[in-house]
Amino acid sequence: MATIALTSGEPAGIGPELCVAAVRKYRGARLIAIGDRGLLRGCPHVDHVPLAAPRKAGRLDPANSRYVLALLDRAVAGCLAGEYDAMVTAPVHKGVINDAGIAFTGHTEYLAAKARAGHVVMMLVGGGLRVALATTHLPLAEVPRAITRAGLVETLRVLHADLRKRFGIRRPRILVAGLNPHSGESGHLGTEERDTIEPAIAEARKLGIAVQGPIPADTLFVPARLKGADCALALYHDQGLPVLKYASFGRGVNVTLGLPFVRTSVDHGTALEIAGKGKADAGSLMEALKLARKLASAT
Predict the structure, then answer these.
(1) Average pLDDT in the chain
(2) What pLDDT, in 10s, does the model give residues 123-136?
(3) Cα 143 → chain centroid
(4) pLDDT band for position 299 (50/70/90)?
(5) Is the pLDDT of residue 13 over 90?
(6) For the chain, what is the domain count?
(7) Are 237 and 137 found together in one domain?
(8) Average pLDDT in the 93-99 region?
(9) CATH at 239
(10) Quick one: 178 and 124 in the same domain?
(11) Distance (Å, rounded) from C-alpha 173 to C-alpha 247?
């Protein structure tokens, strides 16, 4: 039976109660909940990491930000050492970690640095869709210059490799969105497609990757087009994820590709407004556990 590390996330949010609910319901793997034992009563297997300050549901405290990162550090160390077969993460709150004076843009980037992974890709799975991102947590104004030919080629390479290795797709078919309306309208609405995206796609094809694009984002997600694809690559966060979350919110799963271990997560945030009130839905966490076990067994 696979052993999965389950990090409990931001203590003031719904993460701890989701972990307790998931441990009670899920029987497909041995779960090790990582966090303060006092927050995880009901979990039979707890890797205890003590809180830095008392927890109050719904009230963020920067004093616990290093505690949140310590949970991730413990899970990464366990995965790299072979102690855990995969890790599943409950949500963290980026703002309070930065309020503590720690530069933090998200799980994806943090785990990549800790695992010393060369290039990672954020992908969400749900509602019959797989949507990956070429850029992740950036202000919209910074997106165009963050999209480079080399970066796109590497993203497509990682996406192709992990769709084969972890998802068992023999020849993945990938669709790439354009950045501008109508994919730039032959340069009249922007030149990123002509100067960067099209050359990157051509280079990826030479590497044996089955990729099409750039496709205008407003028609990328129509059913007839998606029927012939295994994954869509959006160029920025809010280009691709609203579609997937509309199709699967509360049951979607975030997957980090390119890591030396399996990592999945929920498709939602800390939900401070309902923390501690018994209203949290563990559906997305349950799906993340199921997918983590499946992916771990494929490697």
Answers:
(1) 96
(2) 999 999 999 999 99
(3) 18
(4) low
(5) yes
(6) 2
(7) yes
(8) 97
(9) 3.40.718.10
(10) yes
(11) 21
Relative to beta strand 121-126, strand 173-177 is unpaired
Residues 288 and 251 in one domain: no
Confidence (pLDDT) at 228: 86
pLDDT band at 42 (very low <50, low <70, confident <90, very high): confident
139 lies in the same domain as 219: yes
Residue 298 pLDDT grade (very low, low, confident, very high; cuts 50, 70, 90): confident
Q: Where are the beta strands (DSSP E) in the chain?
A: 3-7, 30-35, 46-48, 86-89, 121-126, 129-133, 173-177, 210-215, 231-234, 253-257, 262-266
Question: What are the beta bridge partners of residue 130?
Answer: 125
Instruction: Give the pairing type, strands 253-257 and 210-215.
Output: unpaired
Looking up tokens 């796609």, which residue turns up?
Answer: 201
Is 16:35 a contact under the CB 8 Å cutoff? Answer: yes
Euclidean distance between CA atoms 220 and 197, whole angstroms: 15
In tens, the pLDDT along 160-192 reads 999 999 999 999 999 999 999 999 999 999 999
Q: Which residue has the tokens 């029987």?
A: 27
Token look-up 């931001």 returns 10
Strand partners, 262: 86
User: For residue 282, what are its two tokens?
Assistant: 């563990």
If asked whether residues 101 and 128 sit together in one domain, one would say no
Length, in residues, of the chain: 299
CA dihedral for 71, 77, 79, 83, sign (positive or negative): negative
CA distance linking residue 33 with residue 216, whole number of Å: 43
Rounded Cα distance between 102 and 107, Å, is 13
pLDDT, residue 250, reads 85
User: Which residue reads 């003031």 in tokens?
Assistant: 12
The closest of 264, 236, 266 to 249, measured between CA atoms, is: 266
Write the CA distances from 253 to 129, 164, 185, integer angstroms.
Answer: 11, 18, 34
Task: Judge contact between 102 and 69, C-beta under 8 A.
Answer: yes
Same domain, 130 and 249: yes
Calpha distance 225→14 (Å, rounded): 37
